[in-house]
Every structure is written in C-alpha cells, then in structure tokens.
Design brief:
mainly alpha; globular; two-stranded antiparallel ribbon; 2 strands; disordered N terminus
C-alpha cells in the first residue's frame, strides 16, 4: 500500500510553492475546488487578463501610424467581454473579501449619483465607462490568486511601463515620441489613459516596486540586472514627467521601506534626510504655472468647495464628473473629489476598498509565526510577506499621489486593489488562521475610519485656509 505520509495536507502548499491539488475547505466552512484545480480552470482567463493589461496600457493601436488601421475596431470592449464570458463559466470561486461587494456597490452607486440629479443620459454613459474598470477588478481579484500569477502580472506591468518609459526618454530627445504623442509644457506624455504627465508618472511609480521585486529574488543574475536597468529607466522617466505629486509619493514609498527595515524610530530619523533629497530632486515648475493648473491657493479653495458640495448633497454628492460644474477647476485631491461627487455613501465604498486592502497587506507583513506549517514551506510564507510589502509600496505611492491629483476612478488603483485581494486569498489558503476580512465584520470600523478621514481633511483645509 502506498504511503501518503509525505503528501501535503488540504490547503497546504508544496515545496515548489504551488497549492495542493486536493479539495480544500476554507475558513467558514465554504467548500471550494482545490487551489491547483482552480488555477488550471482559469488559465485562459488569466491569459486574457494579461493581454488586456498590456493592451490597455500600451495602446499600440492608438499610435499615429496605426490609428487609421484600427479605427472602428472595438479591441478593448471585445477583449473584456470575452474575458468576462470565460471568467463567468469558471465559477464557483471565493468572494469572501470585503472589496468585492464594495466594488459592486460602487458600480451601482457611481451612475446612480447622476440619476439622482435627473441626468439620465449621463447615468448611462458613466455606467458604460465605469463598468469595464469594475469588471477588470473582479476578474483580476479572483484570478491573480497564486504567487506565480502575481509575479507574471508584476512582470507584464513592469515590461509595459519600461517600454513606455523608453518612449518618454525618446520623446524628450525629439519632442514627439514614436507614438506620435507630443510633450506638454516640456513634460513627457504617452497615448490613451497615460496622455497626462501626472497619470504617466503615477503609473510608472506604481510599477517601480513591482520591477524591484525581481532584483532580490533568487534566480538568474541577468534578471536582476535587467530589473535594475528597468527601474532606473522608469525613475528617470518619472523625473521627465515633472510631476511634483509623484516625487512626494516616491518619498512616502521610501519611508514605508525605511520603517520596515529600520523600525519606526530609526525610520523617522531618516525623514529629514529624505525631505532634503526630495527638495533637491523635485521638479520646479513655479514659473510655468498656467491658467489650467491650480496653484497651492487654488487647490485649497477647490478642497473647500468640495466640502460645500458635500454639505449641499451629503448622501449622493453632486454626481460623478460634476465637480467642475460647481467649481472653476477639479479638486486636485481624489479624496475630496470622491465625497464631493459621490457623497458619504460613495466615499465609504471607495475609501473602504483602499482601507481594507491596506489592512490585508499589514496583516500579512506583521505575521511572523508559521508554527502549524512544515519547515519546507517556510519560504512560501516569506514570499507572501515579501510580495505584500511590494504591493504596500505601490498602494502607498498611489494613495499619497492621490492626495494631490483627481484620480479616483482610474484603472491603476483598481488593479492594485485586485492584486491585494488575490494575494490575501492565497495567503489564507496558506495560513487558514488569518482573518477573512469580510465586510459584515469590518463595516463598523470602516464607517468610523471613513468619517474620521473626512473630518481630518476638513480640519486640514480650515487650517490651510487660515494661513493662506
């Protein structure tokens, strides 16, 4: 009789880091397919997802030389519909994470805010615009659910953003990039969703820690050298975007790494040195501020106007995309923009997705024990924690930059959140004692945190106005 003594238990990972293929029962008693079986059944969906991520960022079909050839061909809509159909037939899967119902609620609420203002055509348009973002989030969150898939996603995003960074460097030299995109006020740009220098800087910055994750990973030295070259290229491209918000976000990301490596006290001691370095490296556009760009005073006034909008319509807000109908410029702050346009309910849904994601990552990073696991799987849990730190850096970078930019609805944020959900679900299969992070158990904490963030923002705005 064959001995099964050395085979992995249900829910365990093998020595290679792949989940056991036997049927698993996750915490809460919900029966699922074995992780290995589930991964095989969604391989095609994951392939389509990677193609979509590459296509939505690179947008080669929008290049000046190719735009006529692809004109009228619905590449992205066709791909996401195919991906949705393929994803739908692979059910069942785990929908435990709080971000999943929150995203569905946000999808319903965003167009509803316009319906409540009586603008029906705008409601339909916003639903059509925002639906692909949430579909991408749902598919990515339930498909990028293993460590190998997360690494492939990091590689795909890193490769795409390195290509785009090289485009920006070439654009700086020739004023027009090979895509046909032109610079804006001596700041590099790209096509599609990255045609704004600030959006380009943010996407590049989010990809930097993902590429850096390949530097210290065991494997080929050639891969490490390529990752370092890619990181250097992206950092230089970020500098060429001349985005002050991106530089500040880079500082926040470095502080997170400092706190993790040296602890809170020593990390804080590094803050003055870091601030000095940022002052030297930060772009100086004081003499280039145009009528289209808000000064510091203009930003604070926009924040104050956002609170007035919230006060006038506290539940539903003034409606998605309607901030500039009530103020001369946009909010220049994703948090203010969200509660002004979507009200308290919409802000709760949006902010809670970010808050739960941060809590998931910190839970993985702070967990040092693995006493119930066999010794040969320790490296797997260490890899979970390492990738959690990478995603925390990306999320910190976005959340910091979002304080200076109106980017509440862009795909970059929801892709980060989806990867966080996938990593945490993978971690729970590895460590069943991790809390499930369900909405019904966290909603009270999230309500307090959401309201507290609005109050803190209000206090900060009043202080800044007083000294303006």
């Amino acid at each position: 009789m064959k001995s099964f003594e050395n085979k992995p238990r249900v829910g365990e990972y093998t020595a290679s880091g792949r989940p056991s293929e036997r049927v698993a029962r996750i915490p809460g008693g919900q029966r699922e397919r074995a992780p290995g079986t589930e991964a095989r059944s969604t391989t095609f969906v994951f392939f389509l997802l990677i193609v979509y991520i590459l296509l939505v960022h690179l947008r080669l079909y929008e290049y000046a030389a190719l735009s006529e050839t692809f004109k009228g061909i619905p590449l992205l809509p066709g791909l996401i519909i195919s991906m949705l159909i393929a994803w739908a037939i692979t059910l069942p899967r785990n929908f435990d994470a709080a971000q999943l119902p929150l995203s569905i609620g946000l999808l319903v609420w965003v167009p509803l805010t316009l319906a409540l203002t009586g603008w029906i055509s705008g409601t339909i348009e916003e639903f059509a615009n925002f639906t692909p973002v949430i579909i991408l989030f749902l598919i990515a969150a339930t498909t990028i659910d293993t460590l190998p898939r997360l690494r492939v996603t990091f590689f795909a995003l890193g490769a795409a953003m390195t290509f785009i960074a090289l485009h920006g460097i070439d654009q700086k030299e020739n004023e027009i990039g090979w895509s046909g995109a032109m610079m804006i006020q001596d700041r590099i740009t790209y096509v599609g969703i990255l045609n704004d220098p600030n959006d380009l800087a943010l996407a590049l910055l989010v990809a930097v820690p993902m590429v850096m994750s390949f530097v210290r990973r065991k494997g080929s030295k050639l891969v490490a050298v390529a990752a370092l070259c890619s990181t250097t290229t992206m950092l230089y491209a970020i500098y060429l975007t001349n985005s002050r918000g991106a530089i500040i976000a880079l500082g926040a990301m470095i502080l997170v790494l400092s706190f993790k490596k040296y602890g809170m006290t020593k990390g804080l001691l590094l803050t003055p040195v870091l601030l000095l370095a940022l002052i030297v490296a930060a772009p100086d556009r004081a003499s280039e501020i145009s009528a289209d760009e808000a000064s510091a005073s203009g930003r604070i006034e926009a924040w104050y106007s956002g609170f007035q909008m919230l006060k006038s319509r506290p539940i539903s807000g003034v409606g998605k995309g309607q901030f500039t109908e009530h103020h001369i410029r946009t909010a220049h702050n994703s948090y203010v923009l969200t509660f002004a346009e979507l009200g308290i309910i919409g802000y709760f849904l949006w902010f809670s997705m970010i808050a739960v994601s941060a809590r998931m990552l910190l839970t993985i990073i702070r967990d040092h024990t693995s006493t119930r696991d066999p010794p040969h799987t320790d490296d797997v849990w260490a890899e979970h924690r390492r990738l959690a730190l990478i995603l925390l850096c990306s999320l910190t970078a976005f959340s910091t930059a979002a304080f200076f930019l109106s980017r509440s609805y862009i795909i970059t944020l929801y892709l980060i959140l989806a990867m966080v959900v996938g990593l945490y679900q993978s971690a729970r299969l590895r460590r069943p004692d991790l809390p499930p992070m369900r909405l019904k158990e966290l909603w009270g904490w999230l309500v307090k945190l959401s309201i507290g963030s609005i109050i803190s923002m209000w206090v900060a705005t009043r202080i800044l106005l007083a000294y303006n």
